[in-house]
Amino acid sequence: MNPKVSIIIPVHNGGKTMQECLSSVLTQSPGEIEVICINDGSTDGTAEILREAARSDKRVRVFHFQENKGIVSALKTGLLEASGDYVMFADSDDILLPGACENAVRLIEEYDVDILQFSISVKHVKGHNIDGFLKELQCRPMESTGAKILYDCFSMRRFPHNVYTKIYRRSICREAAENMPDIKLSSFSDLYVTFFLLYYAKTFRSVQDGPYYEYRFLGTGVSTQAPDASQFAMLCEASGILPRIEEFLRDRHEYAARRELVEAIGIILRVDVVNKLLSMPEITKETIRLLVEHWGCEAVYDFIHETGLLDVPCGSRHHMVTDLAAANRKLAGLNTNITVVKKDET
Asked: Rg (Cα) of the chain, in Å, rounded?
């Protein structure tokens, strides 16, 4: 008999937190669950922890990548291997709260939808301001259908684009995994995978029941801390998301009708990357070069505007910098060696 719920856990070097995560999952009721762990090229003790878990509990299935392929590949593997009626996800440093599976199944069957979002709680370390993060994850009661689901998420921002706060019907998960282009991402993997899950969903419901999931905000990942130069370069690689989504829609003759949606996703990515750039301890010409190369002039405008270098309406994206002395004073205050010059001086 197939399990009721497949719980997918991607993990890369999660030896310090994996045991607690697994314990929270394996104590769920009902007992008809399978746990699919994807070891994404870990170099710590993660592999042995997973092997021992599989030896002691037949509900645990483990897949090992010899090298780090990224969360997208790990999630795709889990989605294709899932055999439960429904699918849930857990990050290796988070936990499922007691009764999470039982209640999530009850709700998705009660509302008879492809995807159901539930409430979560956030546990975080001191010293990090997570007000914006909490607001982003806020669960509001709503429902959506068809093509509107994607727009409600990415254009209207009515619900967050993370994968861990929801339960999914397995049939749409398989379709999404089979048609999702491969890409290695160090950040924004949730956004990318969620796009395809929502694309194949016909019905969506968000309820305030819960919390059923505890997100551990540790402030140590690329997505949650001020990046250094190498980490910012990895963030910029997420620009590869847009052409893959565009190609996916073009192949289905839907790009023209959904161009506004793609632009909304581009804005989400660009704004987040610019905010990460602004949080860097040192902004150099190389980081600005990466910004231009991957995100174009729009991102440069956003950067200059957010620093307060330009006091112009947001719509004036091609406005010329006129007060060079004032601009360079502000750049100096940002601990950067960049100098603003007129176009004919470059």
From this structure: 22
User: Which residues fall within 8 angstroms of residue 301, CB to CB, at 6 or more apart?
Assistant: 310, 317, 318
Q: What per-residue confidence (pLDDT) applies to 157?
A: 92
Residue 233 within any structural domain of the chain: yes
> Mean pLDDT across the chain, nearest whole number?
86
Instruction: Please name the helix (run of DSSP H) or strand (run of DSSP E) that holds residue 301, with its range, or none.
Output: helix 285-307
% of the chain with per-residue pLDDT over 90: 63
226: number of CA atoms within 13 Å, CB side?
Answer: 8
Do 198 and 262 sit in the same domain of this protein? Answer: no
Model pLDDT, residue 307? 72
**Distance set, CA 263 to CA 22, 107, 257, 344 (Å):** 38, 33, 12, 31
Q: Band the pLDDT of 222: cuts 50, 70, 90.
A: very low
On the 0-12 / 13-18 / 19+ scale of CB atoms within 10 A, 1 is exposed
Indicate the DSSP class of residue 313.
Answer: -
Query: 222 in a domain, yes or no?
Result: no
